[in-house]
Specification:
This protein is mainly α. Among the domains are: 4-57, 434 Repressor (Amino-terminal Domain) (Orthogonal Bundle), CATH 1.10.260.40; 359-426, no CATH class. The chain has helices spanning 4-13, 18-25, 29-36, 44-54, 63-81, 85-101, 105-121, 125-136, 144-160, 164-177, 186-199, 202-218, 231-244, 248-265, 268-284, 288-299, 307-322, 326-339, 342-353, 360-377, 380-396, 400-423. The longest helix is centred in the C-terminal third of the chain and has 24 residues, at 400-423.
Length: 426
């Protein structure tokens, strides 16, 4: 049988009125109207006649063909979710041909959304942007599921560009659009949790990461295998969140177990990421030697200029400065300033100026430029760390009244975080 919307799409695509369509197919106009309103089911001879008259034998237009096509699209998405990019690449050309030959707007929408996800994962930025631009021009054709995937892709793009506020809005929009899809979606909760974590919403971030961790372990979709694509990053973010609420032993145990697995698998990027997270957890505990040792290990696994490499530079600079090794810390800041993105530049610039607070211009820079930049992007967590760092400098230099000003600023930022958390329904 033909899906009733597909029949309407075929007729309109070929420029027929209902009367002309009926005349060509040798049936009544009333029959065409009934079919298009889903009040009648197309007979087998009607389907054969339609395919013959319009040469549609290669087009998936019957309900069974349409269902098979939608199943193929979901399989393609599962391959992406599970990181099977070579198999996804093999399916892409054939799937594109079948979808384009169909008369299903929904299939075309899903294909372009999943293709955009494929381009995103394979870092084909040009193809991704072209696909997203085309999708943005036809969002009025989307149903709830289409919009859910669309906003997830927007969230991923904004998060990678460090625009955390915009990423959070997109994640929250996606969450409202299709709650059913979230019941088993590892990638959504990982991305949502990572965004919340970097913004400082610790409790909600931990909740999302625990959901992602559970789903990654138990959700068997592709060949009965658990979803391993995000597992190291989930554990890393979860451990960092646990360390913020005082559960350092649990955080370190989680990271040590994950590191052993990734060393066995020899996944360089994930190994580097876990060493980076270990460094951050030890830094939070003021264990500078352990922090520096782990951050030095992380450098061995990251490509120069990568996001992980710059993050490690930043955290090593913080560890050196907090431990009193100011000149060494500044040298790492200078390395980062040569290669980094605007937001990391603000972080590193702020770090540089935080060691020369006797200079009024430096202090002004910290308050008016670096803090403002970080708050615009939503990185409250980093701003709070600066408040802690600067107040400790002033306490050590015998100026407790100035240190108190930065403690007050940290308090105001914490209140702002709480207000946003409540108002945003987080």
């Amino acid at each position: 049988m033909i899906f009733y919307k597909t029949l309407t799409n075929i007729r309109k695509k070929h420029g027929f009125t209902q009367e002309e369509f009926a005349k060509m197919l040798g049936c009544t106009e009333e029959y065409i109207v009934a079919l298009e309103n889903n009040k009648e089911q197309a007979s087998f001879p009607f389907v054969v006649n339609l395919k013959d008259k319009l040469n549609l034998h290669s087009a998936p237009i019957t309900e069974s063909e349409r269902e098979a096509l939608m199943d193929s699209l979901q399989t393609f998405k599962i391959l992406i979710d599970y990181g099977e990019m070579e198999k996804a690449a093999e399916q892409l050309p054939r799937l594109a041909k079948d979808v384009r030959a169909s008369y299903s707007p929904s299939a075309n929408n899903f294909f372009d959304l999943f293709a955009a996800a494929y381009y995103w994962v394979t870092d084909d930025k040009k193809a991704y942007e072209e696909t997203m631009t085309a999708l943005s021009k036809r969002t009025d054709e989307f149903n709830g599921k289409h919009l859910y995937y669309y906003h997830r892709l927007i969230a991923a793009r904004e998060f990678r560009a460090y625009r955390y506020r915009e990423a959070l809005k997109a994640f929250m929009t996606a969450e409202k659009l299709d709650k059913d899809a979230l019941l088993s979606n590892v990638g959504f909760y990982y991305g949502y949790g990572a965004c919340l974590s970097d913004m400082g919403y610790v409790a909600k971030a931990i909740e999302c990461m625990r959901k992602a961790q559970h789903m990654a372990k138990w959700r068997m979709v592709y060949n009965g295998k658990p979803n391993r694509r995000h597992d190291a990053y989930i554990d890393g973010y979860l451990a960092r969140g646990l360390s913020k609420i005082g559960k350092t032993d649990e955080a370190l145990g989680l990271l040590d177990n994950r590191l052993a697995r990734e060393l066995k698998n020899n996944n360089k990027e994930k190994i580097g990421y876990i060493y980076n997270c270990l460094g951050v957890v030890y830094l939070r505990e003021d264990n500078y030697n352990s922090a520096l040792n782990n951050l030095d290990m992380a450098f061995q696994y990251f490509d120069v200029g990568s996001r992980g490499y710059i993050s490690t530079l930043y955290h090593k600079a913080r560890a050196l400065i907090k431990s009193g090794r100011i000149d060494e810390g500044i040298s790492f800041v200078d390395k980062g300033l040569c290669i980094t993105h605007d937001v990391w530049k603000a972080l590193l610039d702020a770090l540089r100026h935080s060691v020369s607070l006797s200079d009024p211009k430096s202090l002004s820079y910290m308050e008016k430029i670096a803090f403002a930049n970080l708050k615009v992007y939503g990185q409250y967590d980093e701003v709070l760390e600066y408040c802690e760092l600067i107040s400790s400098f002033y306490n050590k230099s015998g100026k407790p009244e100035v240190a108190l000003n930065f403690i007050s600023l940290a308090y105001e930022l914490q209140k702002q975080l709480y207000r946003e958390l409540v108002e945003g329904g987080l």
